[in-house]
Amino acid sequence: MELDQNQMQKMLDFWQTYQKEKPEFTLLELLQKASEVSSEFEVEPDESLGIMMAKLQDPNCLEIIDNPKKLKGTLREYQKRGVSWIQFLEQLGLNGCLADDMGLGKTVQVIAWLVMEKESSKKALPTLLVAPTSVVGNWQKEVEKFAPHLKVIVYHGGSRIQDEKEFENVSLNSDLVITSFTLARKDRKLLEGINWHRIVLDEAQNIKNPKAAQTKAILNYQLNIVWL
C-alpha cells in the first residue's frame, strides 16, 4: 500500500466522519469505502492477503472434519466445527479462539486436533499448552483418557527438567508439553529455546493485561496461538 500525507488526511477525515455514525462493517467493506473517498486512493492487497481475505469470505472453505479414528470418544457436531475452525485459521496463519461455554468440550476439541495431526503423514513439532496451575493435572488426565497414544510431558513442579539440552530432547520427542502460566513466565528462557508448533492457552483471560510480565512473556514467543 503506497501512502502519502495528503491521501492519509483524506482517509482520516473519512474515518472521523464515519465514526460519528458508528456503523458496523467488515474489513472488506472498510477497504471498499476507503477507495470511494478519492479516485486516487486505491488499496490493492498482495497475492497472499488477497487469497486469505477471499477464503475468509467464502463459507465453503471451512471443511468439517470427520471424527478422528484414534480418538477415544465421539465429537458432537459443534465440536467438529470447532476443530475445523481452529485448523482453518491456522492454515491461514491466523490465531484461533474457541469461545465455547464451560463444559462444552474445548479440551476434547484440542485433543482431537492433536490426534488428527498425529494421524497425518506430516511430522509435527510439539505443541505447548499453558494452563492455570489448578488444571494442569486435569489436562494430563483428559489426554490419557481420549488419546493415550499421544506423548505428553508435564513441565511442572520442583522435579521438572532444568537442563536445556535434556528438556529440548524430551520436548521434541513429545506431542504435547503442558505447563502453567507461572512457569511460562518464570522459565521463559528454557521454553523459548524450543521450536514449538503452536501455543494453546487455556483460560486465556490470564493474559488479558498487556502490561503484565506474564502476558509479555507468552506473547513474546511469537507463535501461532489458540485461545480457550
Any overview of this molecule?
With about 230 residues, the protein is α/β, with parallel strands linked by helices. The protein has two domains: about 5-45, no CATH class; about 65-225, 3-Layer(aba) Sandwich (Rossmann fold). It is about 45% helix and about 10% strand. The protein contains ten helices and six strands, in the order ααααβαβαβαβααβαβ. A six-stranded parallel sheet has the order 1-6-5-2-4-3. Strand 5, helix 10 and strand 6 (about 225) form a beta-alpha-beta unit. Helix 4 (about 75-90) crosses helix 5 and helix 5 (about 105-120) packs across helix 6. The chain is globular. The chain starts with a helix and ends with a strand. About 20% of the residues are buried. The mean pLDDT is about 80.
Show unreliable segments: none
Largest pleated sheet = 6 strands, parallel
Query: Radius of gyration in whole Å, from Cα?
Result: 21 Å
- Mean pLDDT equals 82
CATH topology of the largest domain: Rossmann fold
In the residues, how many domains can be counted? Answer: 2
Provide the structure class. alpha/beta
Strand order of the largest sheet: 1-6-5-2-4-3
Total strands: 6
The number of helical elements comes to: 10
CATH superfamily of the largest domain: Tandem AAA-ATPase domain
Q: How far from one another are the termini?
A: 34 Å
Residues in helices, as a percent range: 40-55%
Strand content: 5-15%
- Which CATH architecture of the largest domain is right? 3-Layer(aba) Sandwich
- Give me the strand/helix succession: HHHHEHEHEHEHHEHE
